[in-house]
Write a structure and sequence with these properties.
The protein is mainly alpha-helical. The protein contains 23 helices and no strands. The two termini are 34 Å apart.
Length: 480
């Protein structure tokens, strides 16, 4: 167990972490309005300047697999957008939609189920701008849908080892199989998804009284007639299916898949425009399904995603710069700074000291012990991030459970997976998925929305506590 570092290191390390936390929560604070990305870099630099962490350890703390996964999923997401994935997803979400409340429920369910298979970070990267467009097209506020996306992605990702990074760590260390993991957490995930959805509806019931898609489309057609335009000119706005996620801008949506014939292979030149597009779109879907299968088979997630991305670039057979320009590099820089800052904070020994003090009261064979353990995981996951928390506590929790029974060991790992994942909904800093949604929404080219720390925590805190409490008794109830 880690020991508390010397006092100067604890003080300076805590101060550097405090600077990072303050700028992550208040990116435009008056006396230092440098934003989250620069704030994360500042926290990392302070950790090194104060000798809390060495430069070599700082570089080693940057989780390249996670950065590679994020980068690759942004590239793949761009190609899927051009392949019309949003068109089909939009059709699914809008099919017989009964208005804003029904649409919110669909976003919750689709996101939760997709996150269990494609990881929460991937879903948030791909779906954030689409959800903004979906809400704007129906004249609905963006905040409830962004909260639904972020919180449902976290809850849904708890169900599988490939849902998020901390689950991968737990599955690897515990030797729990994919199916054992899935069935052990599935009941809690489904219950948590439902409760979170109901809480969103209760909190934003009045805000979701937007017009139904048919009413919106009819209104746009009437406006077109009054302005002397053909109603056909607004068909691209009538449903998400027409815009591939960019309503009324189908040219932008297809830009990733569009071809420059002068740079194409002779095979492409001999094919019709329709066949070329059909081939590229089909290939995008096929390799994405292959990526999902590779995840389920346990192959390296980061390199699988990178391989998928480069396969799409090569087969597209043109300069990839326009696609690569769509990658949010500032988000990757933010995560790099955060990894260094969090690693430095862990080296102060404070997270370890908290666990060492509370460990005797965290036995999972009593309700009080499970409650104490859950509170510790919730707090540490939001202070030191969920992956370091799992790395810090996993073996200790399992060793403590081993003194009870063999089945208790499996349940302790699953409890850790459930609580550390749902803890991500407590605050904006609780998980990478939250930050991805926040930054992607803030930088969206159209319908941008600034999801602040407080607007997230107002819903996230009560949702986390209720969902965690409801899910804990269901963990491990189904086994194979």
């Amino acid at each position: 167990m880690a020991q508390l570092a010397p006092l100067p290191k604890v003080v300076f390390g805590s101060a550097a972490f405090g600077v990072f936390w303050m700028l992550a929560v208040f990116p435009s604070v008056p006396f230092l309005p440098i934003g989250r990305t620069a704030g994360a870099l500042l926290g990392a630099v302070l950790m090194i300047v104060f000798h809390v962490i060495s430069p070599d350890d700082a570089y080693a703390s940057i989780d390249l697999p996670i950065l590679g996964l994020l980068f690759a999923t942004m590239v793949v997401g761009g190609y899927l957008k051009g392949a019309g994935m949003f068109k089909h997803l939009g059709a699914l979400l809008a099919w017989r939609s009964q208005g804003g409340r029904d649409l919110l429920c669909r976003v919750c369910v689709v996101t939760a189920l997709a996150s269990a298979l494609f990881t929460n970070d991937t879903c948030c990267v791909v779906l954030t701008e689409f959800v903004l467009e979906l809400a704007a097209e129906r004249k609905l506020p963006a905040k409830p849908f962004l909260l639904a996306l972020a919180t449902s992605a976290n809850i849904g990702s708890s169900a599988t080892p490939i849902g998020n990074p901390q689950n991968l760590v737990i599955a690897f260390n515990s030797k729990i199989t994919f199916l054992q993991f899935f069935f052990g957490i599935l009941p809690a995930m489904l219950a948590g998804m439902g409760v979170n959805m109901v809480m969103l509806l209760c909190m934003y019931w009045k805000d979701l009284e937007g017009a139904s898609p048919d009413v919106v489309a009819a209104g746009k057609e009437m406006e077109a007639i009054e302005e002397g335009r053909s109603p056909l000119s607004v068909l691209s706005l009538k449903s998400p299916a027409a815009g591939n996620g960019n309503y009324g801008h189908s040219h932008d949506a297809d830009s990733v898949m569009s071809e420059n014939k002068s740079t194409k292979h002779r095979w492409f030149m001999q094919c019709s425009e329709h066949r070329r597009k059909l081939f590229l779109k089909s290939f995008a879907y096929v390799v994405t399904v292959g990526m999902l299968i590779a995840y389920m088979l346990g192959l390296n997630m980061s390199w699988t995603a990178i391989t998928t991305a480069i396969a799409l670039v090569v087969v597209d057979f043109r300069d990839a710069e326009p696609c690569l320009d769509k990658v949010s590099y500032s988000l990757l820089v933010f995560f790099s700074g955060m990894f260094v800052t969090v690693s430095g904070f862990n080296k102060t020994g404070l997270p370890g000291a908290i666990w060492k003090f509370m460990a005797p009261y965290s036995k999972i064979d009593h309700v009080s012990g499970v409650t104490v353990l859950s509170v510790i995981v919730l707090l540490l996951s939001n202070l030191a991030s969920n992956v370091p928390t799992v790395l810090l506590m996993g073996d200790e929790v399992a060793a403590s459970a081993a003194t009870i029974s063999a089945s208790a060991v499996t349940r302790s790992w699953l409890l850790l997976a459930w609580v550390s994942t749902v803890a991500g909904n407590l605050s904006l800093l609780g998980s990478a998925a939250n930050l991805i949604v926040c930054e992607q929404a803030r930088r969206a080219p159209r319908n941008a929305h600034d999801l602040s720390f407080w607007s997230h925590v107002v819903f996230g805190a009560p949702s986390t506590l209720v969902v965690t409490a409801i899910g804990i008794p269901l963990i491990g109830k189904v086994s194979i």
